[in-house]
Amino acid sequence: MGDFKIPDPENQYAFPIAKPGYYLIIAAAFATAVFALAGAVAIALTGLAVTFFICCFFRDPDRVVPMYEGAVVSPADGKVITVAPVDKGPLIDGNCIKISIFMTVFNVHVNRIPHEGKVKGISYFPGKFFSANLDKASKENENNAVLIETDKGRVFCTVQIAGLIARRIICRLKEGDIVRRGERFGMICFGSRLDVYLPPDAKISVMVGNKVKAGSSILGYI
Fold first, then answer.
1. Taking the domains of the chain in order of start, what are their residue ranges?
2. What is the H or E stretch that residue 134 is in?
């Protein structure tokens, strides 16, 4: 059994925005205001639409996290596109179960920790920018892998993967950090994917086609 928690400080705003989006929103709003004052109505309306889209993309709602024993929550909002055994994972030698979550530009892109533990390793790979829903994106796209060990000695890896138009992976973690299940740890800008590599004996709770929410949806148990 378990309960539910909000692992991060609660937002104080009705429409919370992730910090990486502040500068883009300010720039878009300023350009929109300039065009509006200049009388360029069509361009100003386009700028207003772009500003609204950026605000929506960088939205950062609070999430209630299930604290059931051994539960692994989704690190991202999106659609499950892969649930499959693999021979090895990033930073992991040996068999794993790989779960891939594809995020469109309409999903919340703030990433969250799947399970509490200690960061044992981080590996960044400056790769290519194929569409994130393709299988080869896991190996060939720009990505950032984070290896976490639980207090019971189980290890798993979560990988932020850039997509076709994503050009910025943000990860605030460093090796040795103690992390909590469901807390924010980064984001990927403008379309992307998250892969999670769990131990081979993990009990999986999702299947291909399921839609999940970061911090709230349970992927499985370890």
1. 19-57, 70-221
2. none
Is 217 annotated as catalytic? no
At 163-197, the pLDDT tens digits run 776 567 889 999 999 999 999 999 887 768 899 99
Q: 70-221 adopts what CATH topology?
A: Glucose Permease (Domain IIA) (2.70.70)
DSSP string, 27-71: HHHHHHHHHHHTT-HHHHHHHHHHHHHHHHHTB-----EE--TTE
Residue 154 has a pLDDT of: 94
DSSP characters over 85-114: EES-BTTB-S-EEEEEEEE-TTS--EEE-S
From the candidates 74, 192, 205, 217, give the one annotated as an active-site residue.
192
Adjacent-strand bridge partners of 118: 149, 178
Cα–Cα distance for residue pair 176/162, rounded to 1 Å: 24
